[in-house]
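Researcher: Next sequence.
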Amino acid sequence: MIRALAEQPIVDMHTHLYPPSFGTPVENATGRVDPAGLMLWGVDELVTYHYLVAEVYRVVPATELPYAKFWGLTKREQADHIWKHLFRERTPISEACRGVVTTLNRLGLDPQSEGLDGIRRFFAEQDPDAYIDRVMELANVQRIIMTNAVFDDNEHNRWLANPGIAADSRFAAVLRIDPMVVEWQTTWQRLREWGYETDSDLTGRSVEEARRFLRDWLDRTKAVYIAVSLPPTFRYPGESDQSVLDRVILPVCEERGIPFAMMIGSRRAVNPDLRDAGDMGGKSDVASVANLGASYPQNRFFVTMLAREDQHELAVAARKFGNLMPFGCWWFLNNPSLVEEITRMRIELLGTSFIPQHSDARVLDQLVYKWDHSKQIIARVLADKYADLVCSGWTVTEDSLRRDARLLLHDNYLEFLTRH
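Model: Next structure:
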């Protein structure tokens, strides 16, 4: 089973990764540096990933290193601080730390003997474009699905300035539109500034103009689905959320034949001083997901939820509504013990008709460890389940192992994406 999963090319259906055309802030062999670039890669980005920022503040509290002072350090200095406290003075046993170790070792580097300076020399010699190929080969990722936040000025302006910015066959775009759902009372004004005749009531012409905005950006980005991240308080039916979903987003998704992805359960900035590391999760309302599945049988919904407590109810809801596709172990659930528990439960309820994982990678190099670790766990769960099946009197063949690996890591996503 491990071999079947290892050999199966992956479509990584949700990442925050970009090709070099979106700019890279990392100094490298090409000599091109874009301080606001969106393609993050290299050891300093790996070590300063927000999971490790939060973790280092468990060790060196803000009373010793104030947040403002940490953010005032250069990226290299931040990485040195984290490396010292989490990798040299402590055993890097957390999943976030172990992920860095796995990635560097798979790249042929020895983080214990070389240290950060030696590792930095390796990355300085890399060409970003060629390095993407190397990482994708190591992770056996065939295609990377981006997250393209149209309301982020940095990204928004790059799309406008360069219409061919995403002309890279290794990547596909996703239109991320959180503010339309959770902040319509301010978002309609931004749309009006961009030339769309929207208003706060979202009626009449405003509805059509909001739809035109989505159509324009779907055309511009060639996005394969529309996505939002939602707080635990999201409810359907609801008040502010419902009108935008009912009148704008879901009709356009149906019209274009694309799924709507919901990532539910994120509580933003519970500690704003930590910036991206300051978010948290919370228990959400799975009944709202089921209500959407029932109300819109013609639409398709990718769904992942952040709370462990929501996973069983979500899997049961997916048994009732074939237009719901559970995917991945998102964010704080992407830890080995929880990935195993959730994958085992989903197989028992859904067979092979779900998407077990996505990387959610924000740094290119993370593809290596996130898929390496996840495939080991998925293989272990499948081996147990196949053993149970054999004991029940069913013959499991090598062909069936490869078929199931392809479904879980590749075909389930693509078939749901294009289902009519």
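Model: Residues 9 and 140 are 5 Å apart (CA to CA). The chain has 18 helices and eleven strands.
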